TrEMBL record:
Pfam families: T4_baseplate
This protein's name: Phage baseplate protein
Organism from which the protein derives: Streptomyces chartreusis
Superkingdom of the organism of origin: Bacteria
Length: 242
């Protein structure tokens, strides 16, 4: 993964301000995977995208992620650290994107859902059926082809289990024990939302730095952004001493 420069990150942030969360997540994924065509990213397995975003977070802001949750039992605030690098390594994005289910004469091949599939299915009256229809590659019973709507409930459950096993990173769930009452709190870790929040804070701080340095030295934004973070910080310290 190439480390994106400050100017490119600011452009990503600026573009994301006008986007909904799904659009911002796609912008972040493009930043994480500049080697992949933009039209391909939304159809990659969700777990692969999550692994890419954890890797991007690690590259931009380091390993340590601070997380805050409220205990669902007693309401106590819980603060703890997570390791972005560990998540990036544990969410293996190299698995086969196709799963196969064979049961009682059924032979079903199913594509691991991507973000585009989940988004499209969520807009329908029956998201589960819509997702099944979108991602079903082939289905046959005793050698005869059948449509998605003809799959019985037990086979559909087996497909769901196979997908979850093949793409565990699609649903990153935390299970945290409260230090006060001992009850466990489950919460989904939305890395796209988490990373966007960090990028937003970083961009606003950087623009303030640009303003201060431009005011003090008369430099342009491109000139200031071309400085390393260490040199920018040093010049800011000199401004504060004046």
């Amino acid at each position: 993964m190439a480390i994106t420069g400050a100017a490119d990150l600011l452009a990503t942030w600026e573009a994301g301000l006008a986007e909904a969360p799904t659009g911002r997540a796609l912008l972040l994924h493009r930043t994480a995977r500049p080697d992949v065509d933009a039209t391909t990213l939304p159809v990659l397995p969700v777990g692969e995208r999550e692994a890419d975003l954890f890797a991007l977070r690690r590259a931009l802001f380091g390993e340590r992620m601070q997380v805050r949750l409220a205990c669902t039992a007693c309401g106590e605030d819980m603060e703890f650290d997570l390791d972005a690098g560990e998540f990036a390594r544990s969410l293996d994005g190299s698995a086969d994107s196709l799963v196969r289910v064979e049961q009682d004469g059924w032979d079903v091949r199913f594509r691991l859902p991507g973000v585009a599939d989940l988004t499209a299915a969520a807009r329908t009256a029956d998201p589960r059926a819509a997702l099944l229809a979108r991602c079903l590659v082939s289905a046959a019973r005793d050698g005869a082809d059948v449509a998605a709507g003809e799959l019985p409930a037990p086979v559909q459950r087996r497909i769901a289990e196979a997908v979850e096993s093949a793409d565990p990173g699609a649903d990153v769930t935390l299970n945290i024990a409260c230090p006060e009452c001992g009850a466990a709190t489950r919460a989904e870790l939305d890395i796209a939302s988490y990373l966007w929040t960090e990028l937003d804070a970083w961009a606003r701080d950087l623009l303030l730095d640009v303003h201060l340095l431009a005011t003090s030295y008369g430099w342009s934004e491109p000139e200031i952004l071309a400085l390393s973070p260490l040199r920018r910080r040093y010049y800011l310290e000199l401004c504060a001493d004046v």
